[in-house]
Every structure is written in C-alpha cells, then in structure tokens.
Amino acid sequence: MKEFAIIGLGRFGAAVAKTLYNMGYEVLGIDINEERVQEARDYTTHAVQVDAIDENSLKALGIRNFDVAIVGIGQDIQASILTTLILKEMGIEYVVSKAQNDLHGKVLYKTGADRVIFPERDMGVRVANNLTSTNILDYIELAPDYSIVEVTAPGFMVGKTLMELDLRAKYSINVVAIKSGKDINVAPVAEAEIQDGDILVAIGSNDKLKKIEER
Ligand code: ADP
Predict the structure, then answer these.
(1) Is residue 188 in contact with ligand 1, taking CB distance under 6 Å?
(2) Which residue of 49, 60, 200, 210 sits 20 to 30 Å from the alpha carbon of 42, by its own alpha carbon?
(3) Do the strands 68-71 and 26-31 form a parallel or antiparallel pair, or are they unpaired?
(4) What CATH number labels 3-117?
(5) Between residues 122 and 144, which one has the greater pLDDT?
C-alpha cells in the first residue's frame, strides 16, 4: 500500500490529503502552521508541525520511506522549490509539486519534480473541455497528448461487444471500465456488450478519443 506525504496543507494540499485518507491510504500531513496541523488531524494518519525547508526535521520524520510526496506550498515560492529539492535529494521516487505560474513550474521541473500541477490552469482546461463536449463527462490528462475520459457510449457502440467494436485496433483506445447505472465493470472482457446509456472509461490519445466522440 502506497504511503503519501503532503507538505503544505492549504486548500490544495488539504484536498489531496482528505481524498487519499478517505480512500484508506496512509497520509502524513506536514505544515508550518500549527492551526493547519490541528485541523489536519481529522483527515491524516499523522499531522506534524514542521518547516519543510528544515532538512533535518524532514529526515527525522522518516520521509524518505514515503512513495509519493506532494508539495502543496504555493505562495511561498522559495519554500516550494527548496522543499521539492530536498525531497528529491532524499530519494523520494515521485514528487508532485504545485506551481503558482509557468516560471515557478519550470523551476520545479528543473529542480527534479516528477509532476507539476497548476491547479487553476488545469481546472480551467478541464471545465472548458467538459462544457464544450456533449459526451465527455470527465477527463484526466495523463500526458500532454493522452487522457482517460469518461464518455457516454456513442450510439454506434450500443448493442455491440468490445470485440466487435475493435476499438483497440481501429482507434488505439482501451476501454478500462463500463458503468451501467450503479454497476461498474472494471477491465471488461471482449464479450462485454455496450448498452444504451452506458458510460465508458477509456484511455487513449486525445485525437483518437475525440474521433470516437464525434462519430
Ligand atoms: P492553497 O492556495 O492551496 O491554500 P497556500 O500556498 O495558501 O496554498 O497554502 C500552502 C500551505 O503551505 C499553508 O498552509 C502554509 O502554512 C504551508 N507552508 C508554507 N510554507 C511552508 C513550509 N516552509 N513548510 C511547511 N508548510 C509550509
């Protein structure tokens, strides 16, 4: 089971921590602010008051044993960059850092961040995508050109099995789950038949996903 350390429990860090904690993961929350730490006791496995740029304190917490660290420090750009650097130097495999702007993001990548999140920009893109496509209910960008989408099954798929549709060969798209009402069929077999109103969770390149949606 993966263990997560969240550094900086502002709106972003707290939301990440709560979600992971509710999913049953071990979550260590760290903030310099005592009040934030107190609040975090409700939604983390442990919450500690530490200045993240103090390398020795982080070491004492055994942070190097965590699989993933999320740096939710935003306003204090210097602290965000130094914390990212310290975590990478300690050997944490996957560090996700929040950026305030493009330049901050660039520096975070150069510092070693494995993924940089621009919460407002990313949400703006997401909202625009949701608003302009009639079938796409939600999507997650995996890489600039690849996404996972949740899409209402287009008419041409209804009554056909995954094998008949052959989406993998025709569009290089993989259907990873089919939702029918309250039921969800994860990793559906080739014989699974799409019903009217089903929601598909599919992974593929953005152009190919768009083609499916427009068909
Ligand atoms: P948000 O917009 O997500 O609320 P903020 O930048 O306002 O982001 O909040 C970041 C959090 O990070 C705050 O709770 C702040 O106390 C914390 N923080 C800032 N600097 C440090 C630091 N050096 N070490 C630990 N936590 C920090």
Answers:
(1) no
(2) 60
(3) unpaired
(4) 3.40.50.720
(5) 122
